[in-house]
Design a protein that fits this description.
Chain lengths: 80, 253
Amino acid sequence: MMTNLEKYDDAFMTTFQVDTGNLNNTLVYQAISTWDSVGHMTLIASLEETFSISMDIEDIIDFSSYLKGKEILGKYGVYF
Amino acid sequence: MKIIDAYWEKRNLGVDCMEIVLQEDDSISEVEEQLLRLKAGYLVLKIPSGMPKAMCMAERLGYRFIEGSIEVTNNLQPYPLPPLVERLNAKISHKPMSAADIEIMYAEISKGMFTTDRISMDPHFTPEQAARRYINWIDDELQRGSIAYKVVNKDKDIGFFIYKETALGICYPFLVGMYEKYAKSGLGIVAIYKAMEEACNRGMKQVSTVLSTNNRATVRIHSMLGYVFEKINYVYVKHTNGGTDDDESRKIR
């Protein structure tokens, strides 16, 4: 069974076609070409499905980095 | 071949500009003769895709490739939005701008909102010139009857689009932008969809617009929203008044 972190990382890797080496504090919106508006929607939809949550629009707007995303998911009871 | 005196660029950019638009059945040798006769500080040459001889000719004459320009259309037929986009779209609204809203939009554009057009990416021009050109363009279009809309989340303005009707039943939302604070919100797709929604509300049959291949994000959005790619022009430019191609000086933004 995958941990929350593994599920979280998997969503990033699948959406943005990156590997684990890219999953760090420097991974922010637009830092890679695939994290644009379409990529953002795909990532959020994937995380919502994975963790069975529905995020508020303000949180979707604030979800600006790999690191920030972990903090935001904590509001929905997803801990790492 | 069409040759257009782009006189408005003198005001925008401070240079005389001619735009040359090739047709697929143009004779390359005749085009070359015409190009050699043109006198302007800034020449913009648009070559339809599938004309490699014209592209080689352009390079031989000192023109440089700067962008692909894609004409796209959407016939506004029911098209399934991704559920998340649909949910966000339902929470975000759009409203016609007041005069004060328009000033806010211009201030946002002046911060350097657009960075992927052929002026912004050309080291011969400055970011300020590129921004001023957009503002002048919008100003002209508003005077011709286009409408500026702000895109709103709750009580906060997050972006805008300019709505223009070009022909009976055809809408041309020629500019969509996100304000600085929301530039990385991922909501660009909603702003673009709002323009389509407005076109639907007004009974339009089609939305038509032009995308730059330098703006990969907007190409992806239009693809996701079901736009059909109709035509591609390769855009070349030539500066005849000297200047520099050095991009180093422009890396300050």
